[in-house]
């Protein structure tokens, strides 16, 4: 990727952004945080159109990774204006500034743009979101497609791995089991668990191969959240009997969930040589790469 310089990462303090950030050359990367400061990252609020424009004009990146979002689906459901301001208007601010400097944009979207009736979804399946987060992600995708020609929309799902706030499903699950507590996990939500380090490698390869357009980047196999939780417990040597299978309805979450979701990754895998990992392979890689994970 030597001809691209510098690289900008919005949301470099988050789960996906920090993994991308860690793989970029130190001397040519500029990254941002919002509420959780991290070494070398600069503070910015993507809702601030003026600040975003100034920042991008100053750095003049050739590639912008946009992993900044309000990603808590239930929070978004009860905070419509904030969800829209960050996930849609914030994206628009980045898109317009990227257009001015001619930067390529890489945006992370979600299988939550679908209703979960007929998964797994292809890149050209018809979106039909059933919650506000999904509506906002879809609207952000549409802004990008309307305004830019050189973009990658990378749709991801059920991402897990090491992160500073330890808020992803696997880390919370492992910590809960380690404390000997029980945890309720839905039996009726299907998706492709995706190890963040594998996602970052695959996304970087798509960029290196100068791809444009929409790509599903996720683990190679779909499974229920419950089956995935039991697998994680087994791999990390924890007590899976503490995992209680429940229906999504029983969890009384604010936002509806697409149940039969997840994505078909054939298109992406036919282009990249990075193997998209199965849940088993991803969890084993996580265990190997990070002994301190729990
Ligand atoms: N994780 C998944 O399973 C998953 C699934 C589907 C799609 N996605 C998408 O992937 C992208 C990254 O998700 P993630 O899991 O890495 O989320 P995350 O861990 O919650 O990280 C979100 C990032 O956005 C930043 N941010 C939040 N509000 C901001 C604002 N107003 N201005 C600037 N930055 C702001 C956060 O900064 P601070 O933390 O410093 O506040 C953080 O760096 C999102 O677009 C999400 O919708 C994720």
TrEMBL record:
RmlD-like substrate binding domain residues: 8-285
The keyword NADP is annotated on this UniProt entry: yes
Keywords tagged on the record: NADP, Oxidoreductase
CDD domains: dTDP_HR_like_SDR_e
GO terms classed as biological process: dTDP-rhamnose biosynthetic process
InterPro entries named among the record's database cross-references: dTDP_dehydrorham_reduct, NAD(P)-bd_dom_sf, RmlD-like-bd
GO MF annotation terms: dTDP-4-dehydrorhamnose reductase activity
EC numbers for this chain: 1.1.1.133
Domain of life of the source: Bacteria
Pathway(s): Carbohydrate biosynthesis; dTDP-L-rhamnose biosynthesis
Family membership noted in the UniProt record: Belongs to the dTDP-4-dehydrorhamnose reductase family.
Function: Catalyzes the reduction of dTDP-6-deoxy-L-lyxo-4-hexulose to yield dTDP-L-rhamnose.
Name of protein: dTDP-4-dehydrorhamnose reductase
Source organism per UniProt: Candidatus Moduliflexus flocculans
């Amino acid at each position: 990727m030597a001809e691209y310089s510098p690289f900008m990462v919005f949301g470099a303090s988050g789960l996906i952004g920090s993994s991308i950030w860690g793989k970029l050359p130190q001397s040519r990367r500029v990254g941002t945080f919002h509420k959780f400061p991290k070494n070398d990252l600069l503070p910015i609020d993507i809702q601030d159109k003026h600040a975003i424009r100034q920042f991008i004009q100053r750095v003049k990146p050739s590639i912008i990774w946009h992993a900044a979002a309000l990603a808590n689906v239930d929070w978004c459901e009860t905070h419509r204006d904030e969800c829209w301001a960050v996930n849609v208007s914030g994206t628009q601010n980045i898109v317009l500034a990227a257009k001015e400097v001619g930067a390529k944009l890489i945006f992370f979207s979600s299988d939550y743009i679908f209703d979960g009736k007929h998964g797994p979804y292809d890149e050209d399946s018809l979106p039909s979101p059933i919650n506000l987060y999904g509506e906002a992600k879809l609207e952000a995708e549409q802004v990008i497609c309307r305004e830019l020609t050189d973009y990658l929309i990378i749709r991801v799902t059920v991402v897990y791995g090491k992160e500073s706030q330890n808020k992803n499903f696997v880390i919370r699950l492992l910590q809960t089991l380690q404390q000997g507590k029980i945890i309720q996990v839905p039996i009726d939500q299907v998706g492709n668990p995706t190890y963040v380090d594998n996602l970052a490698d695959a996304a970087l390869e798509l960029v290196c191969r100068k791809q444009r357009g929409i790509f599903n980047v996720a683990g190679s196999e779909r499974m229920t959240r419950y089956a995935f939780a039991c697998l994680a417990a087994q791999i990390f040597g924890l007590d899976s009997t503490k995992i209680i299978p429940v229906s999504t309805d029983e969890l009384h979450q604010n936002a509806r969930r697409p149940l039969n979701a997840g994505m078909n990754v054939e298109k992406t895998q036919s282009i990249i040589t990075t193997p998209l990992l199965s849940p088993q392979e991803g969890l084993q890689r996580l265990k190997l790469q990070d002994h301190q994970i729990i």
